[in-house]
Amino acid sequence: MWIKASPPENISVGHKRKVMTAFSDPTSTVFVVDDDDAVRESLIDFLDVLGFQVEGFASIAEFVQGHRKVPKSCLILDHFMQPTTGLDFLESDEGKNLRLPVILISGDVDTTIEQRARDAGVAAFLEKPLPLKKLLQHIRHLTA
Q: Which domains does the chain have, with CATH numbers?
């Protein structure tokens, strides 16, 4: 499991027990797209416990077919996926029409990827292992 940090102070993480925190809004939806089952499920569980509505997808194709348009939502999108990378999707016509703020995550960051992410309009770009406090701040800002 790649989430190694503890939740923010005063947050108790239990099995599927949602807690209201300063970080969450139960009317916000976070979509998580990552082809690594462990990463995706860990992130879903973490955000669910904090009170977010969370929907996970194992591929971009699953997300495109299955996500629903809801207000106050954002997308956490892994970059290195097959057969299409997160940035390739965002640069496609379908991705350009997404109209959803995106937090791009990646285990490998270089200046080319960072520039492409900026050009694609990515709201935030975070490197794995994810800085959880910063991730939560971005989610809260993007879903406000």
A: 79-144 (3.40.50.2300)
